[in-house]
Structure to design on (230 residues):
């Protein structure tokens, strides 16, 4: 039975990840990280380059096996999460669609109507026949973000979704993310914090291996932790 079919009659679906510890070359990268996202939320994940944001998303999704890592949905273990039908999809920093497939065909394989996914971006429809390498990097990236937002999963994980996106499309993409959160939970990481912060219901900062939940004045907190200049 799929995750969507099982449902959760008591309230929003909740995805949690904890016990995540990882070191590279003896250098701790993640230390007992705990992250929580529920449907109806956009969760922002900030941190410097190399702080472990991508590794954390890969671990939650199940693309990277980490001993003792716990990923749960509604309190039930879901490792690897990607094997639970309808639970989660994930956009890495690299291209999602295979290079030999057109963007339209990639959408169809994901069971997504490409016309519906691009309803607010009609100018992109001419690019649907292109393979990922034939469209501009920003256009291919935007299409892949839209496809995953429109896919029938309870959660979506995005690693740098605004990367390469044309400024004229940024505000419309932000609106797409807000609409999508009505039916799913979203975790996104992006260095374009000016675009990310207004979207987020919850913001975490990966700092020295720890995942800190920021509250109050986010700009001041980010300055205090050295993520933003004063």
């Amino acid at each position: 039975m799929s995750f969507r079919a099982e449902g959760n009659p008591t309230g929003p679906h909740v995805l949690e990840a904890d016990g995540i510890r990882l070191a590279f070359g003896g250098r701790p990268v993640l230390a007992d990280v705990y992250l929580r996202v529920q449907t109806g939320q956009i969760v922002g994940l900030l941190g410097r380059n190399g702080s472990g944001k991508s590794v954390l998303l890969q671990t939650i999704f199940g693309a990277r096996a980490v001993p003792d890592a716990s990923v749960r949905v509604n309190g039930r273990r879901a490792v690897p999460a990607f094997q639970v039908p309808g639970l989660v999809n994930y956009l890495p920093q690299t291209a999602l669609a295979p290079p030999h497939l057109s963007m339209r065909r990639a959408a169809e394989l994901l069971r997504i109507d490409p016309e519906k996914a691009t309803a607010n971006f009609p100018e992109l429809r001419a690019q649907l026949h292109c393979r990922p390498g034939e469209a501009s990097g920003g256009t291919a990236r935007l299409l892949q973000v839209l496809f995953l937002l429109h896919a029938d999963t309870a959660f979506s994980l995005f690693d740098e979704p605004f990367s390469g996106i044309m400024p004229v499309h940024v505000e419309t993409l932000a609106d797409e993310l807000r609409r999508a959160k009505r039916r799913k939970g979203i975790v996104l990481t992006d260095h374009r914090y000016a675009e990310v912060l207004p979207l987020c219901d919850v913001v975490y900062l990966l700092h020295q291996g720890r995942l800190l939940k920021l509250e109050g004045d986010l700009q001041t907190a980010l300055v205090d932790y050295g993520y933003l200049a004063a």
User: Anything to note?
Assistant: Residues 12-94+154-221 form a domain with the Rossmann fold fold (CATH 3.40.50.300).
